Structure formats: C-alpha cells, structure tokens
Automatic annotation (TrEMBL):
Keywords: Nucleus, RNA-binding. It holds the Pfam family Nudt16-like. It comes from the Eukaryota. InterPro entries: NUDIX_hydrolase-like_dom_sf, NudT16. The lineage of its organism: Eukaryota, Metazoa, Chordata, Craniata, Vertebrata. The gene is Nudt16l1. This is Tudor-interacting repair regulator protein.
Length: 231
C-alpha cells in the first residue's frame, strides 16, 4: 500500500499546503520539506533513506491487549535502534535504487518504490543531511518472511544485530510496551520518524503517542529529584 498520498502531490501553481508536523510534546520537531524541495538541494547536502515495514496484526497479548500492528526496526552494531536503510550517493543512485541496494544487504527480499515514500526532514546538527523516510504495508506473513530472510542476510551479526518489533500498546502500569520501548536509544532521526509514521499513518492516536513519550520522562525526573534530596 503506497503512502505518498499522505504528503500530497506538489501543486502546479499557488502556495504549497502546510506539511504535516509531529506535534508531540517532548519531541523536538524536524523541519519538513517536500520530495521536490529535497531534490532541489545543492551538492553540499547528503541524503539518507530508511524504511519502515509494517503489517496489521490481529493478535492479542495475554489474550487481552490488542497488538494492532507489527512494525519492524533493527538493533544496530552500535547498540542503537534504527530502521533499515542508509546513506544514498545521489551521483550514482536514485533515492529508491540506493535504498533498495542497502535493504538488500540487511534484509535480502524486499524492494521499495517511490509510491512508498512518506516524508523528508532536515536533520539537526552540523552535518547537512536530509532524511527521507519510506513506509510499506505488508501482510503479517510477508513481514515474518522478511524477518527470517534478515537472519540470512550479509549484514546479520555484523552491522545489524537483529530485527525487533515495536510494541504499540501501553500496559496498565503506563510504562510497559511503547513507553519502555521509546526509552531506548535511537540513532539519528529514527525515533522521530517512528513517532511521525505512527501518527501520519493513524497507527497510534496522537494522544497515546504523547502519553508514551511523557511516561519516558517521569523516571528520569524522579531520579533527579531523588538525587537532589540526597544531596
């Protein structure tokens, strides 16, 4: 299922429609830009392309918690969570050709097209990087096949330590599930892209995303308060 429609086509005339923003308190916004604008950036810009593969999941955890969707991420060689993908040299590759080349090393059995394009954002920091993000909806069986294939890919056990599924639910303690997952360390724009995709694709309500992000801040604040009291 293509997701390019989430951003809308570039109008031939007139002002551009406002691009979607994340709007989740506690998560710094990245500057959105259209694919057209991104392709017009000068040679001083680097382009990274990453993909979120997901599938509707009718399963129930413990027979009572809806799983909703299975969303794939990966544990990287540096211990950070990220999405499959990497940098694309625009001198030799289109965005999709470069992305598929990297995906072939880490997954081995999936190819994305421009129809799977979701968004582009300018990243923070001293490096001039525009991050392109893709999303492809699969069946649960297709997703499981990719998980199996990833174990036999060239990068498994080297640059990629393994695939993981993102828990999209929050348990009664308000930490189990998505909040605990978001408390992990993510590479670059991966955490922002995850939350952005979950919102734009209506996979998790925006208020639930905000609650999950807020829950990850509470233990840190409690630890700081406790340390201050001891001092």
């Amino acid at each position: 299922v293509g997701t390019m429609a989430a951003m809308g086509p570039l109008p031939a005339m007139g002002a551009l429609p406002p691009l979607p923003t994340l709007g989740v308190p506690g998560v710094p916004e990245l500057k959105p830009l259209t694919r057209y604008e991104a392709m017009r950036l000068g040679p001083g810009w680097s382009h990274s392309c990453h993909a979120m593969l997901y599938a509707p999941n009718p399963g129930m955890l413990f027979g009572r918690i809806p799983l909703r969707y299975a969303v794939l991420m990966q544990m990287r060689f540096d211990g950070l969570l990220g999405f499959p993908g990497g940098f694309v040299d625009r001198r030799y590759w289109s965005l999709e050709d470069g992305l598929n080349r990297v995906l072939g090393l880490g997954l081995g059995c999936v190819r994305l097209t421009e129809a799977d394009y979701l968004c582009s954002h300018l990243t923070e920091g001293p490096h001039r990087v525009v991050a392109h993000f893709y999303a492809r909806q699969l069946t649960l069986e297709e997703l499981h096949t990719i998980e199996i294939s990833a174990v036999h890919s060239r990068d498994h056990g080297m640059e990629v330590m393994g695939m993981v599924r993102v828990p999209l639910y929050t348990q009664k303690d308000r930490m189990g599930g998505l909040p605990n997952f978001l408390a992990n360390s993510f590479v670059g724009t991966a955490k922002f892209q995850l939350l952005f995709a979950l919102k734009i694709l209506n996979m998790v309500p925006e208020e639930k995303l905000a609650e999950a992000v807020a829950a990850t801040q509470k233990p840190k604040k409690a630890a700081i308060d406790q340390a201050g009291g001891a001092a």
